[in-house]
Specification:
It contains four helices and nine strands. The chain is α/β, with parallel strands linked by helices. The mean pLDDT is 96.
Length: 171
């Protein structure tokens, strides 16, 4: 199955000059979604994983599928102000601005092996921030999974863990 057929490109979204990769067609097709899930699972079968962290918001769509398939839990890494209770937050730079991510302090990540999941890797700022939040919580990020990697932005070079991407774009 060619997953590229299930990704639409939207020019100038969210700002002029960005070619947004829309995963909606993939989510609409259960065969494509199942195929993507199984490809992710093949990439992590050699890892001992305790929890899967999904990044706000499209990362949630895949992280819960992966966690359920391997019989473990997942947790959310959300944009600042989106999680209730006490949180740990960190600000990071994007290719078109800055943002902040948070995790709940009550989630026990101490000495746990974590897989991070997001839909897209560009400059690596979002995943790097998530890695740092897990590290602050004494967890260990063993790998990151992304549906789409924008290779020319070299985001994986900014990360401390192996990155597995299902689709690679050069632009």
């Amino acid at each position: 199955m060619n997953l590229f057929n299930y990704i639409d490109e939207i020019p100038d979204f969210p700002i002029k000059g960005i070619k947004f990769k829309d995963i909606s067609p993939l989510l609409e097709n259960s065969n494509a979604l199942d195929y993507a899930k199984n490809k992710f699972l093949n990439n992590i079968k050699s890892y001992k994983v305790d929890l899967v962290g999904g990044l706000d918001a499209r990362g949630f769509l895949f992280s819960t599928l992966i966690a359920d398939a391997i019989g473990i839990g997942s947790f959310m890494i959300r944009k600042q102000g989106k999680l209730p209770g006490d949180v740990i937050s960190k600000t990071y730079d994007l290719e078109y601005g800055s943002s902040s991510l948070s995790i709940q302090k009550k989630i026990n990540l101490k000495n746990k092996n974590i897989i991070l999941v997001d839909d897209l890797l560009a400059t690596g700022g979002t995943l790097k921030c998530a890695e740092e939040l897990v590290c602050i919580s004494n967890g260990n990020v063993v790998a990151s999974l992304v549906l789409i990697e924008l290779v020319s932005l070299m985001g994986k070079n900014n990360l401390n863990c192996p990155v597995y991407s299902l689709l690679k774009y050069d632009d």
